[in-house]
Amino acid sequence: MAGRRHPSGSRLLAILGIVLAASQLSTRTLFVQVSSSSRLVPAPRTPLSHILRFAEGEGDAATTETETEEATEEAPAPESVTPLFQELNVTSSSQAKKLKGAIKDGVRLARERGHLQLDPAHVFSILVKDRSSLPAQVLSRLNGDSQEVVKGCDRLLGSFSSQSPAPEDIAPNNAMRGVLAEAERLRTASGDSYLSLPDLFLALLKQKSLKEVLSSAGYSISALEKAIQEVRGSRKVDSQTADENFEALSKYGRDLVADAENGKLDPVIGRDDEIRRVVQVLARRTKNNPILVGDPGVGKTAIAEGLAQRVVVGDVPEALRDCRIIALDVGALISGAKYRGEFEERLKAVLQEVKDAEGRVVLFIDEAHLLIGAGKTDGAMDAANLLKPMLARGELRCIGATTMDEYRKYIEKDAALERRFQQVHVEEPSVQTAITILRGLKDRYAAHHGVSIQDASLVAAATLSSRYITSRFLPDKAVDLLDEACSKIRVQLSSQPEAIDSLERRRQYLEVEVKALSKEKDHGSKTRLAEAQKELAGVSEQLAPLRARYQQERELIDDLRKAKQKLQDLKRKLEVMEARHDVDAAADLRYDAIPGVQQRIRELEAKKKDQEDATESPLLVETVTPAHIAEVVSRWTGIPVSKLSQGEKTRLLSLEAELRKRVIGQEEAAAAVARAVLRSAAGLARRNQPTGSFLFAGPTGVGKTELAKALAAELFDSEARMIRFDMSEYMEQHAVSRLIGAPPGYVGHEAGGQLTEALRRHPYSVVLFDEMEKAHPQVLNVLLQLLDDGRITDSHGRTVDCTNCVVIMTSNLGSEHLMAMADAGRHGPALEKARNMVLQTIRRSLRPELLNRLDDVIVFSPLNGDVLRQVVRLQLADVVRRLEELEVTMHITDAAVDRVLKAAHDPEMGARPLKRYMERHLVSRLSTLVLEDKLPAGSSVTVDWKATGGRDDWDFDVAMVAIFNTGERAADLVLLSPRNRSTMLYAIAEMPHEFRPAAQFLLRQRDRKMRVRVLQHFQPVADDDAEEMRVSKTTNSTKLGSAIMSKFVDVAGNNLKRTVKLEFQGAFTASIAMEAIEKVAPSGFVIR
Length: 1088
Description:
alpha/beta; Double Clp-N motif; Rossmann fold; six-stranded mixed sheet; 53% helix; extended; disordered N terminus; disordered C terminus
């Protein structure tokens, strides 16, 4: 026994050797475990790479100082990763980042599945599931089923033994250790400085279990090894991030040719000259790099896509056939490159792949100006300098695209870079060309959104965008209009129709009511419950056929959309097959598949037409019309370009009359402005000038500014939509910068100009330049461009559209001539002479080029007595509206109006003194009454000027109101005050038919305001005069109460509940009315 060797002695010696080696690496506590399967498990905190090196005889695996420093820089691992894993994959400087991440994720996967050890299958499963990894990309290239590989890995992992809970420490098994050893051998053989994913993947391919998984999925191991070697080429892995740059073109670019083959690109209509010019430049021997320069949205990127489509069909010279056009993503190149030199390494990998392709790769760099300074850090080169050598030698063919502004700002400054590119100018297409482009895109957008598009909608999108969206360029803005209009219809199709939605809401409301009433026991609740149940049944009965119809229409539209989408896919596939000269496949598509789908579409369209004919109006609308395009334009710009409704037409035709009501006595000005607006609404206004431009001249206070406010109120329902500039603020020459923005380098340059920014936000507006003669002449020069061409350029060089605004200028020049001759009569020859003198003064003061650009110069006449009386009444109407907000009505006598005219009229000041006088003397007194509670809600006041206490003064006669309530419904007794001021009582309100004739009497009253207010509640049905009761001061209150109640006792008694409203004026007060009612009113009357 003593001479026999213990069977596990060699194993213990091996363990002891590993323990001793590990003790040299760390002074931390070390635990070693031997599993029942006789597999060696390293200590939790010992780096796997160091153990493998020692086991292979590589000598001391002590951690170097560099490794320790890098370990401290790495981000901490997640909490779920053990300390063993942290040191395994973070502190080992010989592993590339991608490999570290793969092993880390493999350990996490093993822990999630409860496996005891890390197996090569864990790491392989992680690699094939990550679509961005090199192994996954290689699998996708070869003939095989990559999804079957994923499923095979899952089956393989499912066969491993597991435990619950999962072990805290996951150790690699012998197979995994062997894989890493083989990967290390491959790294040494290839001369790489770092262990990378290609080495790891080639080592994994030697595992028997993984070979079986790949073979069952249809992959050849030799083909995979060859593909990996081809991807890697002769490049060395000399940095931790080098393995990230394999397949750099696929990672940092997009293959436009492949997208064209798969039908992912929109068809390119036109641009033949530009594409031909690009091809010519690309075919040069050196400096074969075109750069597309043009405004944003004109189609620069589309030219590159059009070239890719021509490559697919073979419509290019021999030098470009079978080439790839890679759209380089400069942002992806820069993203995540946080270490010095990392960006350069990525870009050099891209350029190396382009060079290795030997002219079969053309780079397309959109926004080429981003190359200037891209990736530049201290001591590093930017992308442009890295590109210059290859661009000059012709080793790199590149298509750039940028705007003219960015080209001047960045590329022109770098002469060395500019001379390596050849400019290809891309101009904005015409409206007709844009329409042709939209027609080419029509089927693609119709199929995507599942809608039908009228050809008139395409015309509207191009014409309306060209006219109203001037800050952008065709065809981009027209395509966006069409896309949003289609999206709007698509959203409506996917949501419930309004008819069904309203019934659904009503049904839910009734269900809640029925549920609540079913718990009540009183007679009223039971009665209402029966009514609600009956109504609920009716609503449900209406909903059933509507839902069925909606479902039929929805299914038919969905089937039609799918059929059209399938037709588009088949047509794209046919183009590819014909380009590849695959005659059999093209014939099958052209004569079998496509005709079948077209027949299916015709059948569905016929069925849809029959369905529409069977109903008055379909629940779902799937056709995009010009009206939908106009709605989108209105939403974008605020310009009402949609077709005018009949009500809007009537309102515009009556615009002149409405302006005359607001601005009294200035008929000529109102007519001129109304005519300009009508021309614009009819679509006959000039395209390149404002809707109207006027100069209003005349004395102060005659309505010049008021007319501009009235126009804004009539067109936009608010005076706030008027853009006003007080030109007294622009008396200095430098004030011009406030209108169009400060020049570059000055404070406020980024803020823009007040005029340009206001017109950009609200292009459809009234622009008022008040008191023009006070502005500096240099400021007026800025307006020349606005008045002549309907546009203005701000300090940023942006052009602002001014063709949809009305420009009004006001001036007091020459008004002294009008005031001197105003007494001669408004229409007399003296006044006409004064007008001519005003015009001469204006011509002497303002520059001819400014006056010559105006539509009209209108001289406002001074206001005479009759006009001023109407103005007073108009301004009093504003006071009445303010009182109505407090539920108080006001009437003013002619004597009071005369007093305002006599006290406040000043011929030189116009109408403004009248307004000031009323505010000071009338509104102030009314305010006092309101604050003293002498004008409560529901009362009315009559304003008069009469002798009071021996002197003339304002008289405010307040009418008190008493309201008696007996229930929920209403009937009114209203007391009006006729001219003779005798008190009369009339019965009016929501009454049965026998009481309605009382309304006829109100039609003959001279108090129009009261008539309008009352007629809102009921309509007269007969011509009989209302019965009236005359009441004097001595009338007995009992008789008065009995007379009142005799009219309403049947209505307001026990059977029909009503509210009785009594309004007394003159001799009677509320207390007398209450006394009268209380004496004879039945029980149930409640004073409110």
